[in-house]
Amino acid sequence: MNREIRLAPEEIRSAKAAEPETRERDLASKLGISEGEFTAAWEGEGVTRLSPDLDAILPRLASVGELMALTRNEHAVHEKIGVYENYTPRGRVAMFLGKAMDLRIFRAHWVHAFAVEKDTAKGIARSIQFFDAHGDAVHKIHFRHNSDLGAWQKIIDDVRMPENARIPGFAPHTERVPATDPGEELVEELRRRWASIEDTHKFQGMIARLGFRRLQAIRSIGDRYAWRITDDAMEALLNIAANERVPLMVFVRNPGMLQIHSGLIANVRRTGDWLNVMDPDFHLHLRTTAIAECWALRRPSRDGDVLSVEAYDSTGDRILLVNGIWSAGQANRPDWQMLVNGLPRHSAIATA
């Protein structure tokens, strides 16, 4: 197989042997390689490379029964436990629209796939892991104690990469180009389009077509539609929602996947830099020390203005988005509207 990794597999395995307690993602970063490169180093030793053929893998996951879906970005980890059901292949963006799994799958970023088995104190931990062209994790599917091992293994056997297959290398990241000043004319056009949008699902596309990055658009729109709240507002929001039983939609995204939890949350607790939600079917791990800006947004829709809260890191990447639950004719439940409007504003209120 053709591989283009910067360290030889034996060097990576030796580094792990020297630091067995270090998390693999952290060790990969320390070595200057991606998590995907780290995983590829173990092929033949508990790791099997798979064809990243989503339509040959994802629709069959329902046969395995209960699994855990894990999607993360640099500062938030979103885990849902349940059955991968109601797969919709579509074109550029595939979906799961099931009771537990509410996922948006951006196909172009699913480049590498591996089946992973690890010996642990609790037995063999099994997962299927997907990475993008750079080796950044897109999505991981974790086997559960009550999953169907036969159905799981059949999927892996059917999509195992042939030994003579040509394997793409891991591409380095390109340097991010700084955002340019949009100018007042473009900002006015943004405000006009923002005010007239009727479907919040078209919001991101509208911003992108105008050439704005999301946080740049939020900073520019003015406090009629976006106002900055304190950096700890997301922690306050999650605690209030748990205590007052306000149902939420919690979104974590990376370039290849958007994963959503809808419903109540209950068990919110802090461990060091991380704020955690640890409910039976939903786990969230949020590195609150990475939040550089937190914003409340008002977006028009046919059913009224939809309120949301978004957290961003120092590079301008979104860490977490939280919406209320809405239904036809009601964009915001009164309890959600009261919660968002009660969050403390940042001292430097947006005045764009």
Q: Could you give a quick summary of the protein structure above?
A:
The protein has helices at 9-18, 24-31, 35-40, 54-57, 149-159, 184-196, 203-209, 214-221, 233-244, 334-341; strands spanning 47-50, 66-72, 76-83, 87-88, 93-97, 102-106, 112-120, 123-131, 137-143, 226-229, 248-254, 257-263, 268-271, 274-278, 282-287, 293-299, 306-312, 318-324.
Protein architecture, described:
It is built from 10 helices and 18 strands. It has 352 residues and is of the alpha+beta class. It folds into 2 domains: 127 residues, 3-Layer(aba) Sandwich (Heme iron utilization protein-like fold), CATH 3.40.1570.10; 158 residues, Heme iron utilization protein-like fold (3-Layer(aba) Sandwich). The strands form 2 sheets. The chain has a 9-stranded antiparallel sheet with strand order 1-7-8-9-2-3-15-14-13. β2 and β3 form a beta hairpin. The radius of gyration is 21 Å and the shape is globular. The protein starts with 8 loop residues before the first helix and ends in an 11-residue tail after the last helix.
List unreliable stretches of 5+ residues: 1-5
> How does the overall form come out from the CA principal axes?
globular
Oligomer: single chain
H/E order of the elements?
HHHEHEEEEEEEEHHHHEHEEEEEEEEH
Q: Tell me how many strands there are.
A: 18
Largest sheet: 9 strands, antiparallel
**What is the terminal separation in angstroms?**
54 Å
Q: Over all CA atoms, what is the radius of gyration? A: 21 Å
Q: From the helix content, strand content and strand pairing, which structural class follows?
A: alpha+beta
Pfam family, one: HemS
Domain Haemin-degrading HemS/ChuX: 32-158, 213-343
InterPro entries: Heme_Transport_Util_sf, HemS/ChuX_dom
Region (Disordered): 1-26
